[in-house]
Amino acid sequence: MTSNHSSSSLETFLDQSLSDLKSKGLFSDIDVLDQANGPVISINGQKKINLASNNYLGFVTHPELIKASEEATKTYGVGAGAVRTINGTLKIHQELEDRLAKFKGTEAAIAFQSGFNCNMGAISAVMNKNDAILSDELNHASIIDGCRLSGARIIRVKHSDMKDLEEQAKEARDSGIFEKIMFITDGVFSMDGDIAKLDEIVKIAEKYDLILYVDDAHGSGVLGGGAGTVKAFGLSDKIDFQMGTLSKAIGVVGGYVAGSQKLITWLKSQARPFLFSTSLTPGAAGAVIKAIDLMEQDTSYVDKLWENARYFKEKLQRIGFDIGQSETPITPVILGDEKLTQTFAGKLIEQGVYVKPIVFPTVPFGAGRVRNMPTAAHTKEMLDEAIKIYEKVGKEMNLI
Ligand SMILES: *Cc1c(COP(=O)(O)O)cnc(C)c1O
């Protein structure tokens, strides 16, 4: 066992903070998968039906994506060799961005190394301390951090509450103290699976001259035939920033913004992760291009995802669980109590269904749930087996 140096103040901090986290039940050990994060996973040699990934379309293990990644690696090498603005822009990056723009219905696109750093970079490249950002209270952590980094005034808006959005937008506009005002929202909210009311949002934005930024991490590959929430609403020409991730439905890694040529030109000259962090690997870029090919050529992946999601939701509801108001494949089983949620998830995992309990502070206190993500890669047999285990554990615990 090696022993690393640590200063006594660090040691004290870590000891106290870790025990504090543990005593609050906010610390969890990380499970290690023996093989790929597919529809069935293996942990310590034990197989579990996997309902915890974001691998919506099953692309993580798709043979054609793997092949495309290998081919791009052979042609361009394992790394890009530099940041994009020095000489790390390879033809395959250019091709990726052209394909993303076309797929999203915008003039141009910029790719980042992850969705998280895309939000960090893109928001702060445009917004600054003279501006205000209206932000839905359930927005993703990377949006919250990106907004903070920008230095703009952050104004929380009640979740999907159009009356509150309009009031806050009016107040910010009337104050006359902000140069620019942005509204930023998830396209699909990852904990409840509800969809942002983009049609109403666009109307309010037009009235108060708001910049619109939609983070479609959970809408891309899922809604609008795969092209996302904005496409599903037919609003591709009304949203300034269509941000998305390449790590969820697309199955690889990376993030992007699709928008006007002028916006993308600005981001490519100002977004700090683009300027100061080495670009996506050629293998990742190649696999993503193949994923877009597949979605464009063939609707069966998205169709299968929805078919499985509907099937799974209907059965869960029929055996008596509260699955909330999701409008997408994200399927919460809402239990409420934190401890109960943890125990329930633990038993499901023990019996062979891998799920994650989600409790306060990720969701409001008393709104604990087990989140399920059926994917296109699951078979009916896998979903039936998962339902059987849900029913068994639910009855044992007197929940249904
Ligand atoms: C997952 C997620 C991100 C981050 O994407 P990564 O590519 O995993 O870094 C950003 N926004 C939302 C809404 C997400 O769900």
Protein described:
By secondary structure, the chain is of the alpha/beta class. It folds into two domains: 25-54 and 299-396, Aspartate Aminotransferase, domain 1; 63-297, Aspartate Aminotransferase, domain 2 (3-Layer(aba) Sandwich), CATH 3.40.640. It has 14 helices and 13 strands. It has helices at residues 8-23, 63-76, 91-104, 115-126, 141-150, 162-175, 198-208, 229-232, 261-270, 272-276, 282-297, 300-318, 338-351, 380-396; strands at 40-43, 46-50, 108-112, 132-136, 153-157, 181-186, 211-215, 241-245, 255-259, 331-336, 353-354, 356-358, 368-372. Helix 5 (141-150) links the parallel strand 4 (132-136) and strand 5 (153-157). Helix 3 runs parallel beside helix 11 (282-297) and helix 6 (162-175) packs parallel to helix 7. The longest helix has 19 residues, at 300-318. The protein starts with 7 loop residues before the first helix and ends with a helix. Pyridoxal-5'-phosphate binds next to helix 4.
Please outline the helices and strands.
Elements: H1 8-23, E1 40-43, E2 46-50, H2 63-76, H3 91-104, E3 108-112, H4 115-126, E4 132-136, H5 141-150, E5 153-157, H6 162-175, E6 181-186, H7 198-208, E7 211-215, H8 229-232, E8 241-245, E9 255-259, H9 261-270, H10 272-276, H11 282-297, H12 300-318, E10 331-336, H13 338-351, E11 353-354, E12 356-358, E13 368-372, H14 380-396
Parallel strand pairs: 2-11, 4-5, 4-6, 6-7, 7-8
Antiparallel strand pairs: 1-2, 3-9, 8-9, 10-13, 12-13
Helix pairs in contact: 2-11, 3-11, 4-5, 6-7, 12-14, 13-14
Bound molecules: pyridoxal-5'-phosphate.
Residues 114-116, 119, 140, 142, 186, 190, 215, 217-218, 245, 247, 255 line the site of pyridoxal-5'-phosphate.
Family: Belongs to the class-II pyridoxal-phosphate-dependent aminotransferase family.
Protein name: Glycine C-acetyltransferase
InterPro entries: Aminotrans_II_pyridoxalP_BS (IPR001917), Aminotransferase_I/II_large (IPR004839), AON_synthase_class-II (IPR050087), AONS_Archaea/Firmicutes (IPR010962), PyrdxlP-dep_Trfase (IPR015424), PyrdxlP-dep_Trfase_major (IPR015421), PyrdxlP-dep_Trfase_small (IPR015422)
